[in-house]
Automatic annotation (TrEMBL), chains A, B, C, D:
This is Aspartate-semialdehyde dehydrogenase. Keywords: Oxidoreductase. Residues 11-163 form the Semialdehyde dehydrogenase NAD-binding domain. It holds the Pfam family Semialdhyde_dhC. Belongs to the aspartate-semialdehyde dehydrogenase family. PANTHER family: ASPARTATE-SEMIALDEHYDE DEHYDROGENASE (PTHR46718:SF1). NCBIfam families: PRK08664.1 (NF006416). Its EC number is 1.2.1.11. It comes from the Eukaryota. SUPFAM superfamilies: Glyceraldehyde-3-phosphate dehydrogenase-like, C-terminal domain (SSF55347), NAD(P)-binding Rossmann-fold domains (SSF51735). GO terms for molecular function: aspartate-semialdehyde dehydrogenase activity. SMART domains: Semialdhyde_dh.
Length: 389, 389, 389, 389
């Protein structure tokens, strides 16, 4: 394909954070996306990457990467990039408002500096777009914007069709902004899309999560809070779980998104001592009666093929969903790396036994791959195939 | 009170197991229950306790205890005991039927020996009763028996009223058998009892658990399964959660129990790397409309006083339920030892936001204290106060 | 004893930190030391304790404690206290000098504020003494001061004899300052004292530690650094291990200390995912030939009685040292709470097999009890018995 | 090279164990070693691999592998293999003798069956050799045999020169047996070889280890022993550490090995909650005076090139040793996978400060790659290059 012939230079914003580190890892051997520039807070700008980052990946950083010099996250610094990935994570920053001053004081200076940078940068992500640099964002700021597609690549790549309208509206020719969803939402919405495609709308979901510590960044969760313990709360997370899926699972109607109507989600989010991989336990009720059996659900998940497979995107996993029959799977340590973290695993599919819910199952997603950086990369590949890049 | 004046000699069956160890810890300083004999599998009989047990408690075993000689678990060996506590745990044994031969092979010989002993002993628990030795059981075998009370001490001590009928039916004068519920059920049913007492029947519950490794005994969960991991399945556990509460929350009507009608429970049970303390996350729907607000639920839980408090039982906690306002509590490591593990903690009380469920909350219970041994001890204290002992 | 008859009002400085929290726990039921005032950084001053502290103990804080109002750590605020315990921990603060600016930025604002307070407060600890308030310090600032006793209560209580000279020198009548050693040093020095008392001087020690995360305070060690990991380095710790024991094990000669000559210590310190309890693995060489056998070493440790036992100090453990014969003990989770954390456990005593070292063993100490707050409390009890308080 | 042109069919014995699983993972993409047959205990023989194994690797098993049928571990079943790798681990089996009956009972039936198989199989490994099937063993049984090379591939590949003599002695034409060392020994001996090559003999070593749970197999270490805990003892391990290095570091003199004389090793082995990666902390004394400086040691480790690099073995890491300057590295989670686990990492190189030891450092090795299966594979590659295969 022609887009493969042409290498694209890309930049990574927020390159020292945990999502930024994952971007860099995933792009290391990419056939046509070539890491060209890295950006971080102005505090780190001018330093070599190896001197500014606390690298916490189990794959060592390459020597070349370590020598890269960090730029400030300004559009002018990235004007020679064909596109930019942003790991600037407003999921942390956005929560500032609800912190008591006491809690705020427990943030590290680094976190606070980044927050400040975020408060600026997350709203300047759009500045990259306006400067005609396409940007793929992991922050939450534009997720609900009526002209910004919120794309989970194995679910709703068609939402990229809004890009021409977005460009028109904001006066851009080449630039645009595409958003990722929250890491926990992404894992949940993929099986949901498969089930709705086959059995019609889901009416109500009760979801419970066990989320990995890498989701909180570094230094993130103190060890005294997680050794011999779980934390039954993640600030702001339940709200995202209850409200982002409706846009992703909704439709695009010419120039506007239509959120899925009548989909109610109730969420409980907890933190457990797992490095990577969010577990989600889902109970759901379909609208149509009779509802499908566990066997039918299993088959539908197993057979699910999303548009991204047909498009032939390089990073697309063979299976968007891997279904387990073993009663005790999926498990984070064993299954998070299936298809390098691009596949979501589902298991424990069982009947609701005549209660309010029709079906229960467990699913696992790699929170920094398909739940963050990997989704952005796949979105970029799709955008390239569709001619937006 | 007169029963306080009279010391009772008690025996502990299954004394080398994790529930048995907890019995011994809790009884160490008891004012009128005096440890007299300990029983374990025939393999351990005749050995000193210190030579037969793998003591895994964070409180050291006393020298006196270490020197106690283990008896076989036969009624004849315990005929000089006023009562017997049984930590024989058929929760493990009972699952044998569903194991594949491959899984079975992964059990230790010790576990299998115990299982065999269990298969015998759990059905011989009733032999202790018939031999006129009152027995307080943690096994599941008699929980559903129509003449055996299934008692959570801070919920339904009135169910002990069945004892005279049980004695009549089985031809006993002093003997009887009283059962505990499953460790996870106990933690859930206490707040539920408080809410139903105030707001009328609950119609449906969706419950999700994060259970401690001590619940699986020793050696129990292999470390390779729990470091950097969670296990999304506990064999047989969900079934107990879905089916035991109805009897506990039901009524006693003269000579028979009446299970609570129309209470549907859907359960998902997971294992996490916590030593002690089961977390349960509950979403529930009341029958009566309008349903209570989170504030009303909070107040009802806070004010809950069960019969056991009025009776003045020695081990009864001041509060059956401790309510937290902090958004990130209760947590296992910080809160499992409130009132020495006899209190259940509840937090994160919040509205169902107009969905199927009215209320959501998190609760924490110490799985080997109020979830097992402590419940039996409180049950014995109540039985003594009520004159059955 | 007369000192028992008279209650002493005491204050705790650094009350919100992890050593401060442990002070408060240990003093909760103390027969004659009554918690009167609590101090913390000026940022917390004026707040209720429950609103300023992140309580991380497995025993809940009492309601009374929660309502106590925090004072600034100034001598004027504590003038009505008979003595003051200081949990101000310069072990953290003191390391500032070696941090790169990058590392420094990873400290939380709370930590940095405390550091700043420390930088002030640790050097103002002496101000309390000068204001005639006896102070027991956990900080490192005065440990090497020629007029300040560095006392491990089960080792060298006689070093308190310097107090009159200290008072004379600094112009105080009632005030004085007594220091604790570093938490890891304390655990090592107790068995060492027992062995030297019996077999004469030790010439060389190679020590390796596995230290608990509570030793780094809160938030302290990030969970991403300790889940499925160990950290082979603790900043500044090895230096303390190599240099503090010589003063503790030295003698007091009229008005001056004489450090133990010719005792060389080589140390390697690591951090592991244990909440409380430092393990130390010691290989040592005695000066005298022939060296004692493992059996002789075992007996000497078992029989060790320090002066504190003869003095009848309230918190003194029955045994300063508990010796294990089991090959796999002591272990942190099982043994750290022996005698409420005031006893040090030793096991794995074995021969050096003809190499440079004569003997190897493992020891375990509760790092915030005997390793910090508990030592200060025992030191205060001794000071009271000896008439300095 | 010619040996690359010719594919070799290989078999893996003990294929269901943790070393066996690692063999299979490492051989999955091997250019000329093709997995042909897998063997396990007679209990598993005849089953599909996926039905017999508890796969605990973070990389999923392939579908093809899952369908492979397990053979009994008899030479006749593997007669069509060009070579055989054995993951039969007598490190476990060999310890039977020292277990008390009580401890023995805590082993799973699976473990005991395997032990029984081991007791047979480990002594039948030689039967494979006699049946003319070259065998690379991880068991300890033949490590000390005077005609069996104990080879760490980046240290002493020249020891394979004994093969002709071994063949002569045992009457074999093509068959032979080559042994791996213990997983902890391998990690220690590689830096040691580099240092001795440059600075002459080491006289004494004090080594302390923090070993991963995967080293104990599955189910292995119970989680109740490792959560919030460390275990200060690994049965039989210290003995291997103190006695295997001398043969590896010794010379081959025509037809016999000469162990390194005068190398004394003192070892302390502990188990920590890390999945993979053994840490070893080494203090050592050179024979020659003056001893090298830390800088010289660093340089010698960094420049070390072993014979295996010159031979061009396929799996040989670019660097046998990776040296870290960062004070807190290497760490298991971050560094165990360098060069896919074939490289040993060294850090914290520092002076002995005038004590008995000249130098201290920390090293990390992946216990199931370079510490077990990977070493065997490299040994096989070397044997092929040298014409023994």
């Amino acid at each position: 394909m022609s887009f493969l012939a042409k290498k694209k230079c890309e930049g990574v914003l927020g390159a020292t954070g945990s999502v930024g580190q994952r971007f860099i890892l995933l792009l290391a051997d990419h056939p046509f996306l070539v890491l060209h520039k890295i950006g971080a807070s102005s505090r780190s700008a001018g330093k070599k990457y190896k001197d500014a980052v606390k690298w916490k990946q189990s794959v060592p950083m390459s020597d070349e990467l370590g020598e890269l010099v960090i730029q400030a996250c300004k559009a002018t610094e990235f004007s020679d990039c064909d596109l930019v990935f942003s790991g600037l994570d407003s999921d942390v920053a956005g929560d500032i408002g609800i912190f008591t001053s006491n809690l705020l004081l427990s943030f590290s200076i680094m976190q606070l500096c980044e927050m400040y940078v975020f408060v600026i940068d997350q709203y300047t992500e759009i500045e990259f777009a306006k400067a005609e640099i396409p940007i793929f964002s992991n922050a939450k700021n534009y997720r609900k914007h009526p002209l910004v597609p919120l794309v989970v690549p194995t679910v709703n790549p068609s939402h990229l069709e809004i890009i021409p309208h977005q460009r028109r509206d904001l006066g851009m020719k080449k630039g645009f902004i595409v958003c990722n969803s929250n890491c926990a939402v992404i894992g949940i919405v993929i099986p949901l899309a498969a089930l709705q495609a086959k059995f019609g709308p889901v009416e109500e979901i009760e979801v419970f999560t066990e989320q990995a510590i890498s989701g909180a960044g570094y230094p993130g969760v103190p060890s005294l809070d997680i050794v011999d313990n779980v934390i039954p709360f993640i600030s702001g997370e339940e709200d995202k779980l209850e409200n982002e899926a409706q846009k992703i699972l909704g439709s695009i109607d010419g120039t506007a998104f239509q959120e899925q109507d009548g989909l109610r989600i109730g969420a409980t989010c907890t933190r457990v001592g797992v490095t990577d991989g969010h577990m989600a336990f889902v109970s759901l009720r379909f609208k149509n009666r009779p509802s499908p059996s566990p066997e039918q659900v299993t088959e539908a998940l197993r057979e699910y093929q999303s548009e991204v497979h047909k498009l032939g995107a390089y990073s697309a996993p063979k299976q968007a969903i891997r279904v387990f029959n073993e009663p005790d799977r999926p498990q984070p340590r064993l299954d998070r790396n299936i298809s390098n973290g691009y596949t979501v695993s589902v298991g424990r599919i069982r009947s609701g036994n005549g209660g309010h819910f029709d079906i229960r199952y467990a699913c696992l997603s790699h929170n920094t791959v398909i739940g963050a950086a990997g989704s952005s990369i796949l979105n970029a590949e799709i955008a390239a195939i569709k001619g937006y890049l």
